[in-house]
Amino acid sequence: MPRAANWLIGLVLNVFLLTALQAQTPQNKAISEIARFDAVLDETSGMAIHNGSLWTHNDSGDEARIFELDMDGNIQRQVLISNADNVDWEAMATDANYLYIADTGNNANTRSTLVIYRISWSALNANQAEAELIRIDYGDYRPGNPLTHNFDAEGLAVRDDELWLFSKNRGDGNTRLYRFPKRPGHYRPQPSQTLAVDSLVTGADIHPLTGELILLSSRRQRENFIWRAPTSEQGVQWQDLKLIRISPADQWEAIYWDPDNHCRILLSHEDNERGFAGLAAIELHQDC
Questions:
Q1: Is 82 helix (H, G, I), strand (E, B) or coil?
Q2: Which of 9, 83, 201, 286 is such that its CA lies 20 to 30 A from the CA of 185?
Q3: Which CATH number is 67's domain given?
């Protein structure tokens, strides 16, 4: 098919999805606070759950360390990642064998190569662990425009044999999906989809059984949203999305399906609007 025809089809599809989004009326839900984190976790940014423990890390400026907490938010221990640097850690993702830490923050668009650290769960039984490296370069990368670029990313999820990275687009307000293998290597993915969220995506997770995607995002007016959509091998089925507006407003940073309750979503926030960092939940009830 000629390139012009492909471009036209893509434009029509994006307009259709944007129209569907504008017609979507958000459901309003209040969060339930579960725990307040210790002050050392004032910039908690990524979150994962494994074998009944919650794992998190701070944003840029901290050591290359992760924290294991109980589900009441109490720190049990910390693990140093010996061959890593916390340039701008923004997200976590998991599968049965590994924890993935996304060093993909790029606020001023000064980074052309980003790193995702893969650490086996068995290695995390010690207080120090070594990571395998997954390096990525955006296939559509453009330098410059530090305040209005599309090359920051704070949402990471596992789907089958891939990692799905969702960008935080300060330029056009959408999010781009980059897909690449979850194996060590150096990849240059092109965006496979652009999703019209008209907000800044700060977290992502995909349910390992249902394949449902959840995205967490915020707008400058201090509105926070959860976007739910099915996924398949072809990508995100955005036309089937469900939208939730959450309150109270805060700097919500991470989102994760509760592994023990498929109708419950867990979220974490930094020490911002309410003077503490912590863990919260949303109950979907009949909507799940």
A1: coil
A2: 201
A3: 2.115.10
